[in-house]
Every structure is written in structure tokens, then in C-alpha cells.
């Protein structure tokens, strides 16, 4: 498969820059390795000039956790704080700083966990923050094209037309998925090695950052089980029996996988709102390449 460079134009770029123009704090979150840091650096380098700090850097993390107020107070001008979930104590300091100066675009935060699921974030920065999600590469981003699928799908004038793509190419694109590093790998074996490492590190780091559990093997077994049920309604009781994990624990693990952007529950669709609310949602693995890998292992 053709190698796609890591820094392609991301469709979300304009939305991030627009949010920075009128909101004090903008959060860019998404799964690990989707290109959040790359996009944040690109925006900070030209579209919205800002200093860049990553909490993956030990001295920066130590300064941010030891005295959050002093750390934030020492920041001059707009800043990017990468991997904010590693130092949730910064949120109160950011709130205090923003309450003193509500200028737009002061903080661009990135995180590899659903930031609104972090303790206190929703309450702490309510009314001060806009949260945007960066997903893996889309086919349009990799091809350098503006995507119009939704517009065409709902247009009575044009509608959708069949693709001229050959079946073999379609299978290759589905198996590659959209994670930049996986797409760059040449061949299924090398992609599989990347996904194997990715599942281990994504679950370990997300759990370390946002939760304290001892059942990492069960968490990974649940992810594999959900891959086999991708696109199907979630039956927690059946999963509990299959995996031998209590339902309460299973629900917590499923929430962690959603926080890590590895799976997503999609609410049922119905024209009747009441029916939609009571019907069982379906679960999806969020990247086709990851799904193919899980099904093959």
C-alpha cells in the first residue's frame, strides 16, 4: 500500500483554529497515535502561534504536578499542553488563569483519553472549553481530497454512486485502517506487529492515566470479544458469561475502552425518540485496521 506521510492536511484543522479564535481553552482528544501532537504542533507553528509543552517529558510533568499554579502562572502567551490527562491537577490552575484572563486561544490541550471523562474536567472548565475529537486518517485525508460523502448521501440530486475501486484494493484499505503508523507499514505482518504493540500500550497507558485496575488481561480479552461483536447490539450479560467477568466489572472495562477511543457505542436509530432511547446500542471497534487485527488473532 502506498505510504502516506504523517503530516497530511487534517479535516479537523479548520475547526480547531476556529475554536481557538473565540474560546479560551480548546481540547483536542482522540485515540493514541492518531496524530494529535503532530496537528497541535502544526497549528502552534503557524496557524495559531503558541509554545509547546508535552507532559510525556519528565521535567515538564514534574513541574506541572508539583505546583500546578506556579507552572501555569509561568506560561507566557498561548500554549499547547500535550497529554493533559497525565496531570489533571493542572485543570484547576488553568481555570483560575482563564477566570483572570478570558482571552481566546490561550490553551490548546491534547489528550489520549476522553477528556470529558477525566475527574472534575467537565465541571472545572464548563463554559471555558471546546472539545474536538481527532480520529485516525480518513480515506479522503490520505488521498488529499475534500470528503463529500454525507452531503451526497442526503442529496436527492446526486445521491451515491458506486466506486470503481477494485476488490483487492478495498480489502487492503480496510485492513490498513487509518492510524498513521499502521498505514505506513508495508505488508500485513508488519501492520499486525504494530497493532499488537498498540493494543498493549494503549490499554496500559490509558488505565495508568485515568484508572486503577488490575485486570489488564481481562480488558484485552473484552476488546477482542467486542471485535467479534462489532456492529452488533451490546449484550453485557452474554459477555459476562463468555468472559467470566462480573457485569459490574465488565461495564467499567467497557467504559475504559471507550475512554481510550478503542471502541464506541452507537445509540440505536429510530424516528421515534422514545424508542431510540430504550433500544440497545451497537458497539464498534473504532478503526477498521484494528478490527481486522483483532479478528485475526
Major sheet: arrangement of strands: 2-3-4-1-5
Radius of gyration over all CA atoms, rounded: 20 Å
By DSSP, the count of extended strands is 8
Low-confidence stretches: 1-6
Categorize the overall geometry.
Answer: globular
Please report which band the strand proportion falls in: under 5%, 5-15%, 15-25%, 25-35%, 35-45% or over 45%. Answer: 5-15%
Count of alpha/pi helices: 16
- What structural class do you assign from the helix and strand content? alpha/beta
- Main beta sheet: strand number and arrangement? 5 strands, parallel
Mean pLDDT: 88
Order of helices and strands: HEHEHHEHEHEHHHHHHEHHEHEH
* First-last Cα distance: 22 Å
Helix content: 40-55%
Account of the 3D structure:
- This protein has 297 residues and is an alpha/beta fold.
- 49% of the residues lie in helices and 11% in strands.
- The protein has 16 helices and 8 strands.
- The chain has helices spanning 13-20, 36-47, 58-66, 68-73, 90-100, 121-124, 139-143, 149-153, 167-176, 180-184, 188-210, 216-228, 236-243, 247-259, 273-278, 288-296, and strands at 25-29, 51-54, 79-82, 107-111, 129-133, 232-233, 263-266, 282-285.
- The longest helix has 23 residues, at 188-210.
